[in-house]
Amino acid sequence: MFMRFFTELREAKVPVTLKEYLMLMEALDKAVIDRNVDDFYYLSRAALIKDEKNLDKFDQVFGHVFKGLEKLDIMGTSDIPAEWLKKLSDQFLTDEEKAQIEAMGGFDKLMEALAERMKQQRDEDGDGDGKGKGKNGQGPTGDSPFGANGYHPEGVRVGQEKGRHGKAVKVWDKREYKNLDDSVELGTRNIKVALRRLRKWVRDGAAEELDMNATIRGTAEKGYLDINLRPERRNKISVLIFFDIGGSMDSHIKLCEELFSAAKTEFKNMEFYYFHNCLYESVWKDNRRRHTEKLSTWDVLHKFSNDYKIIFVGDATMSPYEITYPGGSVEHWNEEPGAVWMDRVAQLFPHMIWLNPTAERHWDYTPSIEVMKQLVGDRMYPLTLEGLDKAMRELSK
To answer: The whole model's pTM is what?
Structure first.
């Protein structure tokens, strides 16, 4: 059963290693948890999952592999599904045991034998207290597939009024982490997690932070309290973001706001500007005054050093001529095509990406997206957790 759990996690593209699986088995062997599904769920999740983006996949696989726990926990012996019995035999019985069952007359006869055995156990007490588990771990508190109050991963409840281990099913069925899945759009918290891949820690500025190690070492060497300070550790990465605003981007306002909020938190050295559809000769900082307070794109590009990471955020959905022809802009007359300006950015800044909030499966149906992908060197990524993760890796090169 546990090996099946491991293999299905691998099939679901959850990066689980054999070492982690063996660690989980060792934890079970040493009884670090009580024998209930609730504890096993949390233990296995802690042991096997390294990245929170895989938590939802884990919940789905866990629910699929152990779904019998919830269903069978509320069943009596009279309505055990034949498909489950067949599945149980395939997983846990040897060919010889299967042959013995067939010789008895099949599963119907087996269940009759079970009923007779349970009848006998009413008068038996394996522990001498009237509530024992009986012979071979069957009966109350036992670990046989048949019994009550005990625990078996694919157990059949007999003579128990209500289940005791089914509540954990509700934990993974809730799928509280489904918004962390690779393929879903992001929230502010999840964007922050993805953006953290783009970091370069340095210590600069005034020495205002206590250096504990140096203080201890200095005090031990000098024989008196020697307080040492050091500059605060900061993320040195500098980011310049261009947001497409208006038109078809109106449907992505919430997502762009979340991205902006997360980026402001993660990158202390960040600048941003707005444009519409494609980059032209001017950009702006305030959308309410976009027509009266424009800034020269040329000046902006030469204001920042080439170690800045450039991020374009837009759906790149427009007519191709808006990119490739003079006068292509739908808002003003542009003397130079947008493609020229995009090429200038690429020449000045070696680290540049484009984040597209449109689902990647729709990209092939929009010619302008293909044109823009070529202009940014095929470094266009969907604005999902997986896409943002790949984009940050690209900028980190």
So the answer is: 0.54
